[in-house]
Write a structure and sequence with these properties.
There is one protein chain. The protein is α/β, with parallel strands linked by helices. Among the domains are: 154 residues, Rossmann fold; 97 residues, ANL, C-terminal domain (GMP Synthetase, Chain A, domain 3), CATH 3.30.300.30. The chain has 17 helices and 28 strands. A hairpin with a 2-residue loop joins strand 24 and strand 25. It starts with a helix and ends with a helix.
Length: 569
C-alpha cells in the first residue's frame, strides 16, 4: 500500500514538473522577439559554392573590384581565375594544408578579396588584422592564431617583423606588390603566387570543408578583457549571405546585362561589418566595389562625385561628415537608394541632416550586429517608414532576440530595458582557444550575450541605450580597456591604471585614463599619452589622463568603471 502511494506521489510530482516546464517554456516564448520574416532553410555545402551560385556570371567582364587610389582592377572573370591560382599556390608552392591559418594584415584593396576567397578555396582559415597595428598588438594576435603565412603591404613590414619576433613566430611573409621595386629579402611577392601560375583543380576540388568548420577568425573584445579571436564558420557565412538576400534586407540589385550597382568600400575589410556586409554581401550580387585603403574625405568625395554610387555603408562619423561638411554636394546623393549605418549608435538629428541635404527619396537604414553574430542581427527593412532613426530595426530572418536582467539573468518582458541576447545561425562557433570566455557569453539555449543594454519599442524596433561590456567604441572600432590598462601599468611611473570611454562629438567615444603614480616618481599626462601612442594603433590613443589617489574596485579587484564614470565623466 505504501509502495502504491509512493508511486502515485512520484507520478504526480513528474506531472507537476512537466506542467511547470511547459509553463516556463510558454513564458520564455513570450519574452522572445522573433523575426516577422519566415525562417529560411540554410543551404548545406561550402560558402564558396553558394557564392558562385548566387552570382552565376563569374565569367563576365563586369568590374568586380577597383582601387580608388591605384586604379588596380579585377573583373569577375579575372577574380575567379586568380582566386584559383592563389589557392593552388598556397597548397603547392607554400605547402599549406587544410585548416592552416593565414593572416590578412592588409588595408582595403582588390587583392584583399582575392586573398580572402583564395584562402577559403584552399581549405585554409583566414584571420584578419588591422594594418595600423603596432608590435604589441600584432604579437597578441599572432600568438593566439599562429598563422603559417602573413600577407601584408610594404608599409606594414617593419611592424610585422617586430611583432612576429616578439611572439617568437617563424612565419612566411607575402608582400602585396604593385611595382617592380624589390621586396624585403626572404619575403614572397603576392603577384607571383596570385596572378602568375597554374590552377590545379584536382587539388582544390578535394578540399573537404564542412558547415561547422572555421572560415574566419576576426577579433573582438567581447564583453571584457583583451581582444579574442572569433570563430566564424562556413555555415555562418552561408547564413549571413542568405539573410542579406531576403528582399526585406536586400539593398543591392543583382547585376544584369550592362548594369551594376556601385558600392564604395570605406569600412575596413578586417572588421566584420566591412568583410561580411560590404564585401561578401555585394560580391555575391555582382556589384562594382571601389576600395579605399584608408579614409580620406578628398578621395571619398571624389568617389561620390565621379563613380555615382547606389549604396553607402557607413559608421556614425561618416554620417556626421556627410551631413555637416560644407564640401558635400547635393549631387553626391543623386544615384543613391540607401545609406546603411551600423557599428555604433547614431542620433536622429545626424540622419536628418543628411536627408535634408540629399533632397531625394533616399532611404536611411540602420542595423545592429556584433563580430560574434557575423555582423548581422537587426535591420531597418527596405521600404520601412522610420519614426525614429536612432532605432536599429527589427530581427532579420531566423533571428531571435530577448532581454535579460543583467544582475539576476532572468528574462524580461519585451519593452523593458535589459541586456540584449541574440540567437541566430550567424552566431559564432566560439572564441578561438578560449572555452571559458565562450561559456561566459553563451546561454544553454544558444543565445549570445551581447553586453549591450537595450529595449524593444513596438512599431519602432530595437533601441541600444548603453553597454554592460567594457569595450570603448572609437569611430565604430573596438578598444579594450584591459589592453590599455596593461600597457599603462608597464610605464615605470605608474602604480595602477583604469580606462573608461567618454563621449566625443565626432568619434562617439574616446579613452580616458586614471593613473595612480608610484611613490617618489613623477610624470605628466603628455608623457603618459605619448607612451601609449607609440605602441598602439592611432584610434586607441588616450584622449585625457587624470591622476588620482584611488581607483574604485570590487573585493575581487575588478575595476568599477561605472563608478569612475559617475565621478569623473
Amino acid at each position: 500500500m505504501a509502495r502504491k502511494f509512493l508511486l502515485r506521489e512520484i507520478q504526480e510530482l513528474k506531472a507537476l514538473r512537466r506542467l511547470s516546464c511547459s509553463a516556463s517554456l510558454r513564458r520564455n516564448e513570450e519574452f522572445i522577439w522573433k523575426s516577422r520574416l519566415t525562417d529560411m532553410v540554410i543551404p548545406e555545402g561550402r560558402f564558396l559554392d553558394q557564392l558562385w551560385i548566387n552570382y552565376n556570371k563569374w565569367d563576365c567582364n563586369h568590374v568586380a573590384l577597383t582601387c580608388a587610389e591605384t586604379k588596380k582592377t579585377y573583373t569577375y572573370k579575372e577574380l575567379r581565375k586568380n582566386i584559383d591560382i592563389f589557392a593552388t599556390s598556397l597548397r603547392k608552392k607554400l605547402g599549406l594544408q587544410e585548416k592552416d591559418v593565414i593572416c590578412l594584415f592588409l588595408p582595403n584593396s582588390p587583392e584583399f578579396c582575392l586573398a580572402a576567397l583564395g584562402i577559403l578555396r584552399a581549405g585554409c582559415i583566414a584571420t584578419t588584422m588591422n594594418p595600423i597595428y603596432k608590435e604589441l598588438e600584432i604579437s597578441h594576435q599572432v600568438s593566439i592564431t599562429e598563422p603559417k603565412v602573413v600577407i601584408t603591404v610594404p608599409e606594414c613590414y617593419e611592424n610585422l617583423k617586430k611583432g612576429l619576433a616578439n611572439a617568437k613566430r617563424q612565419t612566411k611573409i607575402v608582400i602585396l606588390d604593385r611595382t617592380d621595386k624589390p621586396v624585403p629579402e626572404g619575403t614572397i611577392r603576392f603577384s607571383e603566387i596570385a596572378e602568375n601560375g597554374e590552377v590545379d583543380t584536382a587539388v582544390l576540388d578535394k578540399v573537404d570543408v564542412k558547415k561547422d568548420d572555421v572560415a574566419f577568425i576576426p577579433f573582438s573584445s567581447g564583453t571584457t578583457g583583451l581582444p579574442k579571436g572569433v570563430e566564424i564558420t562556413h555555415g555562418n557565412l552561408i547564413a549571413s549571405n542568405e539573410m542579406m538576400c531576403q528582399k526585406e534586407n536586400d539593398f543591392a540589385y543583382m547585376a544584369d546585362g550592362s548594369y551594376q550597382d556601385v558600392v564604395p568600400c570605406i569600412l575596413p575589410f578586417f572588421h566584420i561589418y566591412g568583410l561580411m556586409v560590404t564585401l561578401f554581401g555585394h560580391i555575391s550580387k555582382g556589384c562594382k566595389l571601389i576600395t579605399m585603403s584608408r579614409f580620406s574625405p578628398i578621395t571619398y568625395f571624389d568617389v561620390l562625385e565621379n563613380e555615382k554610387p547606389n549604396l553607402l555603408y557607413v559608421v556614425p562619423p561618416i554620417v556626421i561628415l556627410l551631413g555637416k561638411h560644407p564640401d558635400v554636394k547635393q549631387e553626391y546623393f543623386k544615384n543613391l537608394r540607401h545609406i546603411v549605418c551600423g557599428a555604433a549608435p547614431l542620433s536622429s538629428s545626424d540622419v536628418n541632416a543628411v536627408l535634408e541635404k540629399s533632397k531625394t527619396n533616399l532611404e536611411f537604414n540602420q542595423g545592429f550586429g556584433a563580430t560574434e553574430t557575423s555582423s548581422l542581427a537587426t535591420s531597418t527593412f527596405v521600404g520601412t517608414k522610420v519614426l525614429d532613426y536612432s532605432a536599429c530595426g527589427e530581427p532579420m530572418a531566423n533571428v531571435q532576440l530577448k532581454f535579460i536582467d543583467p544582475v539576476t539573468g532572468h528574462d524580461l518582458p519585451l519593452g523593458e530595458q535589459g541586456e540584449l541576447l541574440v540567437k541566430s545561425p550567424t552566431v559564432m562557433k566560439g572564441y578561438h582557444k578560449n572555452e571559458t570566455a565562450t561559456q561566459e557569453c553563451m546561454t544553454e539555449d544558444g543565445f549570445f550575450k551581447t553586453g549591450d543594454l537595450g529595449y524593444y519599442k513596438p512599431g519602432q524596433g530595437l533601441f541600444v541605450t548603453d553597454r554592460i561590456k567594457e569595450l570603448i567604441k572609437v569611430k565604430g572600432m573596438q578598444v579594450a580597456p584591459a589592453e590599455l590598462e596593461s600597457l599603462l601599468r608597464s610605464h615605470p611611473a605608474v602604480q595602477d591604471a583604469a580606462v573608461i570611454g567618454v563621449p566625443h562629438p565626432f568619434y562617439g567615444e574616446v579613452p580616458k585614463a586614471f593613473i595612480i603614480k608610484k611613490n617618489g616618481l613623477n610624470t605628466s599626462p603628455e608623457e603618459i599619452q605619448n607612451y601609449v601612442a607609440d605602441q598602439v594603433a592611432p584610434f586607441k590613443k588616450i584622449d585625457e589622463v587624470i591622476f588620482v589617489n584611488d581607483i574604485p574596485k570590487t573585493n575581487t579587484g575588478k575595476i568599477l568603471r561605472k563608478d569612475l564614470k559617475k565621478i569623473y565623466a
